[in-house]
Design brief:
This protein is α+β, with helices and mostly antiparallel strands and 162 residues long. 45% of the residues lie in helices and 24% in strands. The protein has one domain. It is built from five helices and nine strands. It is elongated, with a radius of gyration of 19 Å. The N and C termini lie far apart (66 Å).
Length: 162
């Protein structure tokens, strides 16, 4: 009897693991489709990070900036600019980041907290596609210059550390 229970438990564990693997594969495919839609040109070097690397980047973002239940707590971020969705924020955002941070080859991460994979590319490539990248619960993060962009409701918030 014990042997049957052990085999049944092993079969159930295998089945659970298979379901988890299939869900992870679907999430990865969703991220891959987004990468192909956002960066159709091959000259844009985009990498989808592994779950482990993605978790490190997300943990780093959470350690750098104060989060609460609804995203970043902007009242605790000293250096910030909030753009209204109703203005031409794209060029103003690019100008703010390029002027203040003199980005050249800085890396940017597109972090979507719904999925387990983070996209990595040059920050300038992300800024040129900010409207396409923009979604609720998504962040743009550049660890070199300690910069984060959050898309909340009708605003675009940019924060950085000196």
């Amino acid at each position: 009897m014990k042997n049957k229970k052990e085999r049944l438990k092993m079969l159930l564990d295998k089945q659970k693991q298979k379901a988890i693997d299939e869900e992870e594969k679907r999430e990865y495919e969703t991220v891959l489709e987004e990468v192909q839609a956002l960066f159709p040109n091959l000259e844009d070097e985009v990498e989808i990070l592994s779950k482990e690397e993605s978790n490190k980047i997300i943990d780093e973002l959470f350690a750098e900036f104060p989060f609460h239940a609804y995203g970043i707590d902007w009242t605790l971020v000293f250096y910030k600019t909030i753009f209204s969705n109703f203005i031409d924020y794209e060029s103003a955002l690019a100008e703010l980041v390029i002027k203040n941070h003199k980005i050249h080859n800085d890396i940017g991460y597109i972090i979507d907290l719904r999925y387990q994979h983070v996209m990595k590319t040059k920050l300038i490539s992300i800024l040129h596609r900010v409207e396409e990248v923009r979604k609720w619960d998504r962040y743009i993060y550049s660890p070199q210059i300690k910069l984060v962009i959050e898309f909340s409701s009708n605003d675009i918030a940019v924060g950085w550390k000196e």
